[in-house]
Write a structure and sequence with these properties.
This protein has 478 residues and is an all-alpha fold. The protein has 17 helices and two strands.
Length: 478
């Protein structure tokens, strides 16, 4: 069977009963993890950046589009996660349906998504902390030669992630309470400063992108059709939707916790759909308030929400928003570190990565080796590399994984119609196909340079697979 060999679903289901990973999580813990990773950079930074550069007040519509696409993908994740609860999520689903090489591609893709996301967020965290406490910019923030703040927060969170999943869940839930309270405060107070004139026109008319525009920064769909690069208009709304999709990435991290959930067949779907629904409402509400408070042309790209409240004289609210950003970004990094550990654990257990990565600590019950290795790489990136331009790669990585998950739903139904499915995607295979096409279309609205970087990462991954993974796979010879 070679590179197309698949893993038997019964083998996956037997593994979840092995006890390697301890079952300590309930549905509420999963919702906390979900909100913890989803609410972060998107609400505190991306809403303002995309309103100013691509969509204007219609960034709210971009968040709606992103939520719809994420919701379609979440339904597919919920079916697979409740039917085949496993530490590998999309990686294992691909292994059981499409074949080993597709599983490797998705696993490699997910490692990129979460590692790069954690590095980006850690640098943002460092900058917010410097702003909140007046720390020296030569050690904290984007102007630092070595971003010490980013390295320190990754180090601290790695200790928590290795210490145990229950400790990680408790820590994350505390942070979630703080940042949700801040979001509700933004909505409750900010709505009184909304001006209808700031929301008109809701979709600013399209205009040329400017003299600095080049084909590398043009959306693939525009470049492919030979269209002139533009900003705003409907095309701007769709480009913003593809980028703010970054804000929703993370709910798929919950699917990696199937082997650590007490009742995965029920709690996984509750966690995935519940977290996404809560976060979508908060994103849409906060982006509407932001663009209603400040003309989109005047939005500050560094700290848009804090600056908006400063502009109306509510300086104490601005300080609380900075505090909410620090806690919000901390929980995002926490869940991303936990997720990287579970994906690497699953790939090591299958032999596609060194087998020692597929083991857990005898006392703490966590995949400590891969978590620590991943954290070191993230810290190096965060310390030295200004990676703001690479944040789009988080979106393209998540979208490509979601396409595989959507395809896996009807494939697994054909291969295993007898499999117990506590939750099923309605109107299959139509809805999974629509989900896959919607994700693909958003990918095509990302720029050419993002696709080139993504192709380079995938190429490196395939080299590693054919040199190491294929030869050491547990399925070799089957």
């Amino acid at each position: 069977m070679g590179i197309m060999r698949t893993m038997d679903v019964d083998t996956v289901l037997q593994r979840q009963e092995s006890g390697d990973l301890k079952r300590r999580l309930r549905g509420r813990d999963l919702v906390g993890f979900g909100v913890g990773i989803i609410i972060g950079t998107g609400i505190f930074t991306l809403a303002g950046v995309e309103a100013k550069t691509h969509a204007g007040p219609a960034v709210t519509l971009s968040f709606v589009i992103g939520a719809v696409v994420a919701g379609l993908a979440a339904l597919c994740y919920a079916e697979l996660a409740s039917s085949v609860p496993t530490a590998g999520s999309a990686y294992t689903y691909a292994f059981a349906t499409l074949g080993e090489v597709f599983a490797w591609i998705i696993g490699w893709d997910l490692l990129l998504e979460f590692a790069l996301g954690a590095a980006v967020v850690s640098r943002g965290w460092s900058g917010y902390l410097a702003n909140l406490l007046g720390l020296p910019p030569e050690w904290f923030g984007e102007d630092a030669t070595i971003n010490v703040g980013a390295v320190l927060i990754i180090a601290v969170l790695t200790v928590v992630a290795v210490a145990g999943i229950k400790q990680s869940a408790l820590f994350t839930n505390v942070l979630v309470v703080v940042k949700v309270a801040v979001c509700l405060m933004i909505l409750g107070i900010g709505v009184f400063f909304v001006k209808a004139s700031n929301l008109t026109p809701f979709i600013p008319p399209a205009r040329p992108a400017g003299e600095d525009a080049d084909v590398l920064h043009q959306p693939v769909v525009e470049a492919g059709l030979g269209l002139e690069q533009s900003a705003f208009g409907l095309a701007g709304v769709l480009t913003a939707a593809a980028i703010v999709f970054f804000a929703y990435t993370g709910f798929e991290a919950l699917a990696n916790l199937g082997e650590e959930t007490k009742n995965p067949r029920k709690d996984l779907r509750v966690g995935i759909l519940g977290a996404l629904g809560i976060c979508a409402l908060l994103y849409i509400g906060v982006s509407l308030v932001l663009t209603g408070m400040v003309p989109f042309t005047d939005i500050d790209e560094g700290a848009p929400l804090a600056d908006a409240f400063d502009s109306v004289g509510m300086h104490w609210i601005s300080a609380l928003i900075s505090l909410g950003a620090v806690t919000g970004l901390t929980s995002v990094m926490m869940v991303e570190l936990v997720t990287i550990g579970r994906i690497g654990f699953a790939m090591g257990r299958d032999g596609l990565l060194p087998k020692k990565l597929g083991t857990v600590h005898p006392r703490w019950g966590t995949p400590h080796r891969v978590t620590i290795i991943g954290a070191v790489l993230i810290a190096l990136l965060a310390a030295f590399v200004p990676i703001t331009e690479l944040s789009d790669m988080v979106s393209i990585g998540a979208l490509s994984a979601m396409i595989i998950v959507a395809i896996a739903v009807p494939v697994l139904r054909r291969k295993r119609p007898d499999l117990q499915r506590p939750f099923t995607v309605p109107f299959s295979p139509v809805l999974p196909i629509v989900a896959a096409l919607a994700c693909l279309y958003l990918m095509l609205n990302l720029d050419v340079l993002t696709w080139i970087r993504f192709a380079a990462w995938m190429g490196l991954g395939l080299v590693i697979y054919f040199v190491y993974g294929r030869r050491h796979s547990r399925l070799r010879g089957q």
